[in-house]
C-alpha cells in the first residue's frame, strides 16, 4: 500500500480530528453481528479460482479441510478426517469423519474429498494454485469413511497442504450446478454459510447451526458475520469510529497511532509469516554482486534495526536466515552481519571497489523502506538507483537476469515449512539467481525426506551456506496492526488469516 | 447534415478500434501477465500452466483478433480474478458509476449556473469575486482531500450521512458532491461569460424596452441562449466524471466501474481493463459525437467541418 505524503497528512489530520469529536465505536454485540472491513473484495466463492487473501478468509468460513492446523500450538488436529497414517512413504490413508453434512443437506463422505482432490487438481478445472495439488498423484475413496491419497514421491509437507488451501467441496452439488452455479450459491461443510452475496460490496455469512462441534474449530460463536469491502483506509477508520464496522486490519503505522487509546477500540499488533528480503543476482559475472565480499559489504551497510524501529509497524523482528523463523527447518544459528559501515567500506576496498559502484534496486512495495536502504548504501559509497514498479515486472526482471538487486517479500502461503520459502528461491528454478549446486542438493534432500531429523540437518546446512555467502540480505518480519471493537474476543495469528470462526464476544 | 453525421460516425469507429488496439498492446507490455494472474506466491509450474491455459504463448496479433471477433459479438471475455464474464461485471457496476456521475453533474449544474448568473448580473462586484472564488476552490482542491473532509464533517462529526457503501439515496450524496464540485468552475465561468455577452445584446435591450420583468428576461430570454455551449461542455464533463470517478469510488466504497478498473489494472486483469477501456472510450465518443451534432444543429457553419 502506497500513500502520498499529502494523503498521510490528510489521514493523520482526519484521525486526530475524529478523535476530538467522535464517540466510542458501537459494537453490534446486541445483534450478534460482526461487521468486518476488508480492503479488497472477495472475488470468488470457489477457493480454487481464488488468488487473494480475502477469498481465503471467506473459504475458511465456508469450508473445512481434512486436517486442522491449530494456530496456537502449530499441531495438526482432526477436522474432516479423524485419523491418518502413512501406510508407506507415498501413501496416506485417512479415516473420514461421519455425521457431517454440507450446508445444503448433502451428506459428506470420502467421495467428496476424493472428488475435490482429483477434479480440482486436474487441468480441466483451471485451478489457480495448481502447485497445491502437484504432490498428489490421485485420491481414492476406499469406502465412505476411508480416503487414500497416493503420492508420486515422498512429500513431507503433505499435511500442511491438506490443512491449508485444500478445502473440501460437495461432489454431487458441484457436478450438478457447475462453476457458475457454485459461484452464485456456494455450499461447504464450514461453520458459516454465505447467504447474501452483493458483488463488490458485502457478503453475509450466517452461522451454520448444524456445524460439527467436535474436532477442529468447534461451533461458531458469532451469529452473523458481514464482510464489507472498503478500499480506502481512511474510510475504514471513519467507519470504525462511527460503528459502521467493528474490525479492520492492515492499518498503517501513522493511522494506528491515532487509534490507540481511543475508547471502545482495541488496537493490537501481531506478526505475520511474511518476510522482507533483498535478493541479489550472483550469477552475472560482470556485476559486482557476484563477488561474495561485495554482498557481505552490503549486508554490513544496511541498518536494519533502525528501519524496523522507525518505519516498520511495531511487532516486527529482524531475521537472520532466508526463511520465517518459526517455520520448520529455519535454522537461526547462521552468520549474521552487524550494521558496520566501516567494515563494509573495508570489504568493498578488498573486493576492488574502494570508491563503491552503481546499480539498480528494484522494488514494488514499501517504498520508504527501500529508500532507507538506498540511503544506507550511499553512506558506504554504493549508489543504488530505485526502479519502483509492479510486482510482476520486478519478478520478471529477476528471472531474466535483468535485475541486480530486488527488495521483495514472501508470505510462504502461510505454510510453516522451509520447503515453502527457502526452497522456492534456491533450488535451481527460474527464481534461483545464485546457481549454488551445494545448496540446491541440500534443499532437495530436505524437501523429499520424510524423517524430520534428516530434513532439519539438510536445511540447516543450506541456510548456513546461504548466510555465509550473503546471497540474500534477510530483513524483517511484517506485522499487521488490527483495530476492533473492545467487545470482540479476537486473537490475531501469524498465518495472516483472521480466524473469525474462532472469534466470539467478550 | 447526414454527410456530417456519417463522417463523424466513421471517425468514431476508427477511434474506437485504435483505442482498443493500443490498450491491448500496452497492457501486455506492462509485465508478464501470466505471473500477474498466478499471484505472488506462485511457483514456476503454476505460471507455465497459466500461460498455456490463457493462450498467452500465442502471437500478439492472433490474440488481438480473437479478442476483437468476440468483442464484436458482445463477448468481452472472462475476468481472471472474478471468474465471471467481463460484460456481466461491467453491467453490474455501471449503474453505480452512472448514478454517481449523473448526480454529480446535477449538483455541479445546480451550483454553478446560479453562481454564473449571479456573477454575470453584477460583473466585477463582490458577488462576482465570491462566486469565482468558490468555483476555483473546487478545481484547486484535490478531490480525495475534499472527499475526506466531507467524510469527517458530515459522516464522523455530525453523523448526517452514511460514510460508505450503497443502499440508500443518502449514500450517494457525499460522493456526488465530491465528484461534482470539480466541474463547477468550468461550467460557472462559461455560464457567466455567456450571460454577460447575452445581457449586452440588442434583443435583451428590446425586451427591457418592451417592459418585461427582469426575472422573465433573465430566464426566458437570456439564460436559454447563454446555456447552449454549457450543454456541450456538460456532456463532455459527464464523460470525464465517468472516467474520473476512480478516486471517489475508492473512498466511498462504491462498487462502480472506476474502482473495478483500478483494481483490475493493479492486478493485470487484462480482460477487464480491456473491456472497460473500450466501454469508456465508446461512451466518451458517443458523448462527443452528440455534443458535435448538437452544435452543428445550432450552427450550420460547423457542418462542413
Account of the protein in words:
The complex is a heterodimer of chains A (506) and B (305). In chain A, 32% of the residues lie in helices and 22% in strands. Chain A is of the alpha+beta class and 506 residues long. Chain A has a six-stranded mixed sheet, sandwiched between helices. Chain A has a four-stranded mixed sheet with strand order 1-10-9-8, with helices on one face. In chain A, strand 4 (81-88) and strand 5 (91-96) form a beta hairpin. In chain A, helix 1 (5-21) runs parallel beside helix 6. The model of chain A is unreliable at 19-27 (pLDDT under 50). By secondary structure, chain B is mainly alpha-helical. Chain B starts with a helix and ends in a 7-residue tail after the last helix. The model of chain B has no long low-confidence stretch (mean pLDDT 83).
Task: Give a brief rundown of this model.
The complex is a heterodimer of chains A (506) and B (305). Chain A has helices at residues 5-21, 53-62, 110-119, 158-163, 171-184, 233-242, 253-259, 292-301, 304-310, 341-351, 367-379, 391-400, 422-426, 437-448, 452-469; strands at residues 33-38, 67-69, 76-78, 81-88, 91-96, 136-143, 146-151, 192-198, 202-207, 224-229, 247-248, 265-280, 358-363, 383-388, 405-410, 472-485, 488-489, 504-505.
Q: Helix content range of the residues of chain A, please?
A: 25-40%
What is the assembly state of the chains in this entry? heterodimer
Q: Return the string of H and E elements of chain B.
A: HHHHHHHHHHHHHHH
User: Main sheet of chain A, how many strands, which sense, barrel?
Assistant: 6 strands, mixed
Unreliable sequence segments of chain A: 19-27
Q: Largest sheet of chain B, if any?
A: none
In spatial order, strands of the major sheet of chain A run 11-16-12-15-13-14
Strands of chain B, count: 0
* Cα-atom radius of gyration of chain A: 24 Å
> Are there runs of chain B of 5+ residues with pLDDT below 50, and where?
none
If you average the pLDDT of chain A, what whole number results? 88
